[in-house]
Design brief:
This protein is α/β, with parallel strands linked by helices. It has helices at 40-53, 88-96, 105-116, 161-165, 167-172, 177-195, 210-213, 232-247, 255-265; strands at residues 2-8, 12-19, 24-25, 30-33, 60-64, 68-69, 72-73, 100-104, 125-131, 135-141, 144-146, 155-156, 159-160, 199-203, 223-225. A hairpin with a 2-residue loop joins strand 10 and strand 11. Helix 1 crosses helix 2 (88-96) and helix 8 (232-247) crosses helix 9 (255-265). The strands form four sheets. Strands 1, 2, 3, 4, 5 and 8 form a six-stranded mixed β-sheet that branches. The chain has a five-stranded mixed β-sheet with strand order 11-10-9-14-15. The chain contains nine helices and 15 strands. It binds beta-D-glucopyranose (BGC). Beta-D-glucopyranose (BGC) binds next to helix 3.
């Protein structure tokens, strides 16, 4: 089944039509700037434009950088606070005229990696991280996702870990790779102590430069680079929508259902 995946980020809103069974992109990626201030209605207008670009009629899978339960946003770390309590699903359905599924961006990227990327066929406890404006996390146990894990916001040195260790923290303070690497090491050590993972999958744009900072991260669990790169969110979002569409379930999504319905078809 073809699904339109839309990935909403701090700087861009990107869409592509995805074959949810294989994870392949059927079209080129289409990207528009995230509107300044990123308020709900402004973002929804751009989501509508992306859907119209593809002349889309069918299910849409959207990712959003916040806690998302039953289509409603419950946090707003790097987006306008007015998102909290917004029914994102209903808002985007109104602006696109199509059925929409919304899930957390890191969960979407993690799902794509688990089914088609670095986590494929991997068992045990896996932590997928996206290093960007924020730190997104997706937590899997034997392929089951614990949704909305928000481990980017654990406490570190008396503050929010994300403020110190996200890619944006490196850029903001113009940190050397070594200095940032040390902060990341501290962060990864904390995650390892709390959750004893078997594998870390590291995504986000900066993962392309893993040779510059992986050497500073000294965890017991191996670290691998995400394989789906920039497209992980679009693909994972589309896969979530596909699974929910197939199961006729409009409520809380179940990640295993997503993994099953995608691998069954692949
Ligand atoms: C948000 C998460 C999101 C992550 C990556 C964090 O600031 O709290 O919900 O997944 O950024 O975008």
């Amino acid at each position: 089944m073809h699904v339109l995946g839309i990935d909403i980020g701090g700087s861009g809103i990107k869409g592509a039509v995805i074959d949810a069974g294989t994870g392949e992109m059927i079209t080129e990626r289409y990207r528009l700037e995230t509107p300044a201030g990123a308020k709900p209605v402004d973002v929804a207008l751009v989501v509508g434009q992306v859907a119209r670009h593809f002349n889309w009629k069918g299910p849409i899978g959207c990712t959003f950088p916040a806690i998302i339960r039953n289509g409603v946003a419950h946090s707003a770390a790097n987006v306008d606070k007015s998102w909290i309590g917004t029914d994102v699903k209903a808002l985007f359905e109104e602006h696109t005229g199509n059925p929409v599924t919304v899930i957390n961006d890191a969960d979407a990227a993690g799902i794509a990696e688990m089914v088609f990327g670095a986590g494929r066929d991997q068992q045990g406890v896996i932590i997928m991280l996206t290093l960007g404006t924020g730190i997104g996390t997706a937590l899997f146990v034997d392929g089951h996702l614990l949704p909305n894990s928000e481990l980017g916001h654990i406490e570190m040195n008396g503050g929010d870990a994300e403020r110190q260790a996200a890619e944006s923290a490196r850029e903001r303070a113009d940190l050397t790779w070594k200095k940032w690497g040390k902060r990341l090491n501290q962060y990864f050590q904390k995650l390892e102590f709390l959750l004893s993972p078997d594998l870390f999958i590291v995504g986000g744009g900066v993962s392309k430069k893993s040779e510059k900072f992986f050497k500073h991260i000294k965890t017991r669990a191996p670290l691998v680079v995400a394989q789906m790169r920039n497209e992980a969110g679009i693909i994972g979002g589309a896969m979530a929508a596909h699974a929910i569409f197939q199961n006729g379930d409009e409520g809380e999504f179940d990640a295993q259902m997503i993994l099953n319905s995608s691998t069954d078809e692949a």
